[in-house]
Structures are given as C-alpha cells and as structure tokens.
Amino acid sequence: MLKPRVIPCLLLRGRGLYKTVKFGDPKYVGDPVNAVKIFNEKEVDELLLLDITATPEKREPNYELICDIAGECFMPLAYGGGVTSIAQIRRLHRMGVEKVSLNSSAFHDRRLLEESCDVFGSSSIVAAIDVKKTLFGKYEVWINSGKTNTKEDPIRYAEQLARLGVGEILVNSIDRDGTMAGYDNTLLKNITSAVDTPVIACGGAGTLDHLRDTIACTGVNAVAAGSMFVFHGKHKAVLINYPTPEQLEVLHLSHTTP
Fold first, then answer.
1. Is 130 known to be catalytic?
2. Residue ranges of domains in the chain
3. pLDDT digit string (tens) for 213-244?
C-alpha cells in the first residue's frame, strides 16, 4: 500500500499567504515564496496552493506570483483558484504546476473537467469539494470560495466527479477549516466508501493524532492541513513547521495496520 501523503495547504489572498477559520476571518501569515523555501528544507511530500479570492473576484490565476512560487518549489505543486479553461491549465503546467485543482468551474462545467482529464491525464487534475453542514446536519456542497450553496449532496457529487475521470478528489470541510479540532471523519469515510478515486482530506487538522486517526479510519490517500503547519503554540504564533521523518513514519505505519 502506498504511504499516505501529508500536504501543507497554503491560501493565497492577493500576493500574501493567509489562513482562514471556516472560510472567513483571513489572517495574514507571511510571504508565500518564503514559506515555500522553508517547506523545501523540510522536504514535504507535496504542496497545495489555493487562491481563495480568484473565483469570487472573477479573475484568472496570478500567473506572475505562481511562476515565482513554482520556481522556488522543489516538491510537487498543486494549484487551484480561478481556473476556467484548458488554456489556463496548460499555462500553469508549463510554469511547473504539476496538478491543477478545479472547484467552482468543475461544478459549472463538467465538460471542462472531463476534457482536462483527457488532455492532460487524470493524474494532473484534482476536483475539489467544499462541504458545509446545514442546521439540520445535512452535508451540502458549496462553491465560490464557500459563498454559494449548490444544495448538492457531496457523496453523489463525488461519484459524478469520479466517473468523469479525475485523478484525485480534495474534500474540504468548511465547518472544520482553521478550527484545528480534527477532520470530519464521517464525511470523509462516506466519500471514500462511495468512490475508488483517491481522496485528500482537508479542514480541521491540529495535531499528529488528527492526521493518524483520519488516515487509519477513513481510507483517504492524503491529508492536507493549513493552520497546523503555519501556527505554533496556544497563541498561534506564525511558525512554518512540518512533521519530522520519525513522526511521519508513525503515520505511515498506522495506515497499513489492519
């Protein structure tokens, strides 16, 4: 069995790196290029870069900034935010972005998602699902950086994305985002049980135990985290960090234990 990846998730807002709580209250945490340089030194598995204002502002990705980041990134880089065309995906790949994540555009244009997989290969395309619970506990898919409720059921939607051939599905819990209270393992288990496509968990990680538990009990192929890797201590001082090789080995072993 492949070892699960542990992926820092960085949020872009303008030219800065920010962290949110439940997709709101953005807090500036530094320069993204500097953060990438530190993650290089820590030899992270992969890096996920999401521009959280591109879609709401109806603009294309910030190619200049992405190029600067990709030029300093020595690990596989995935990017999402404001991508609406094959030409944009091709441009991002040429800059050094290995994977492109489609969220709002995937929901509005399933043909774009399917064509992207055909043109660039499934391994290059990630479909992202942002999920939030209603007051009655029902899961629903939100788009436009969590501003628009589609009323779509995330499990049924994940099944549709899997049939279109995406290489991975990124599942992000809006309710857990930035809380550092743990992933929504119920949601993740429901989705991994419904699709064979690899799933990346996101939203809520705060400790190594959270990573280990989600890897062990949900069947995800990777765990992504933001706050956990940019904050340190009870006062949440900004400090770029990542598990040591020894800590990662514990996570990997727990994944393969029956």
1. yes
2. 5-256
3. 999 999 999 999 999 999 988 878 899 999 99
Say if CB 132 and CB 138 are below 8 A apart.
no
Residue 214: Cβ-neighbour burial (10 angstroms; 0-12, 13-18, 19+):
buried
Strand partners, 9: 48
Show Cβ contacts of residue 118 under 8 Å, excluding neighbours closer than 6 positions. Answer: 165
Which of these is catalytic: 51, 130, 177, 184? 130
> How far is Cα 248 from Cα 167, in angstroms, rounded to an integer?
24
* Residue-level length of the chain: 258
Task: Check whether 206 has a pLDDT greater than 70.
Answer: yes
- Give the three-state DSSP class for 109: coil
Q: Are strands 99-102 and 24-30 parallel, antiparallel or unpaired?
A: unpaired
pLDDT digits (tens, 9 = 90+) for 65-91: 999 999 999 999 999 999 999 999 999
Query: Which position has the token pair 């020894």?
Result: 246
CA dihedral for 210, 69, 92, 21, sign (positive or negative): positive
**CA dist list (Å): 124 to 8, 44, 100, 228:** 18, 19, 6, 26
- Phi-psi label, residue 91: left if phi above 0, alpha if psi -120 to 50, beta otherwise: alpha
Regarding beta strands 47-51 and 77-80, do their DSSP bridges make them parallel or antiparallel, or are they unpaired? parallel
Question: pLDDT grade, residue 210 (50/70/90)?
Answer: very high
- CA gap 60, 51 in Å, rounded: 10
Q: Regarding the domain delimited by 5-256, which CATH topology (the fold level of the hierarchy) does it fall under?
A: TIM Barrel (3.20.20)
**How much is the pLDDT for 254?**
46
* Mean pLDDT value across the chain: 94
- Is the predicted pLDDT of residue 257 greater than 90, yes or no? no
86 residue type, one letter: I
Neighbours of 5 (CB within 10 A): 19
